[in-house]
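Lecture notes, unit on protein representations.

Consider one protein chain, 412 amino acids long.
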Amino acid sequence: MAELTRRIGLSLGADLCWPLCFEHLVKRLDLRVPWKGDTLRFEVERVTIEPFDLRQPVKYDVVVDRLTHWLNTSREWIKKGILMDGLYVFNNPWSVQANEKHTSYAAMMKLGMPIPETWMLPAKAYSADKLDAKVTLKRYGKLFDLAKVGERIGWPFFMKPYDGGGWRNVTRVKNAKEAWTAYDESGEAVMHAQASVEGYDAFVRTIGFGPQTRHVSYAPDAPLHDRYTQKVDFLSKADAEHLRKVTLTINAFFGWDFNSCESLRKQGTWHPIDFANPCPDSQVTSLHFHFPWMVKAYLRWTLFCAATKKPMRKTLDWEPFYQVAALDLPYAEKLDRYAAIADQRFETARFEEFCGTHLKHLDAEAYEFFATSEAKEAVRQKVAALFPAHEVEKFTELFWQRIQAWRAAGCP
């Protein structure tokens, strides 16, 4: 019996809090996992950004990627690692690069999800380096009346960039004047016009990490640190299961291990409205009460993928989903079948067995850890990076108390 080391790389940007907690908990767990006659140990290392030889082997078994969506060097290093070294990465970098919100809307509409009416608008302006823009638009650009688009969609509607990102340039417009103003200010951005789900009675953000999901009651108009509410058990079992299936279907379809899905409920129907977020917020300054769950989700899925050497799905293979979409079945039955494909791709049963066998003590270790000075220091460091100096202690204490509320509630 040999002792083998599985190496986990953290490819990080501005992340501070969850990596510190992740690293501390791996040390506290001190895992020795019996696996196929050997014993597995785990090492965690932060990935650096530097020149690399395309033939140089990647030393990691799994990389948790928080840079692919914006840093080209890291993205290309990760692609090379997948193609040449069998690296497993959260998330599929080709999918993150190619499948923005526009693609996700179109695909999930095809699968039958009740996505609000959505139109794409040509850009208002074009940069000077697009040399053929003027002649192309003169020949083929069709003048349009945004007011008529609004009448087709229905007022009010949201105008937002087709590729999204951190609620940037999202505007709710109530009439033609406001729509034209928002469009005129959009510059070179290609915009969506999407119907508003008026009169909804629930707004839920579902976080999906591998086969794990967490439903959070979301307050979009609150300050960032209060948008994730601290409500628990606010959904019926049927609604929770429905949102689990929706989220895992989206994630498995696009090859995203880690993503979030925003849904609005109106008259009993859940409308997914924003679900191409394959590098979702993981910071204690917004998640607070839910932050320990997030750290545990990172740990469980990372350790499972590293231990089992889960193979990276290099191609997305949408055909099984489209075969279901073509069936003459109610949406609920199709969703059951989509979710079954997702559970197969995420190896849900095998994952749960692994956690039940090898990570039984994670909950107890996390409960103890999130009362330590090391955990509080991780909170403080993130707060200090975002808040002015005179607010650091105030907000460190606020978020810390919400973590303690999570512990007091039995770590839901």
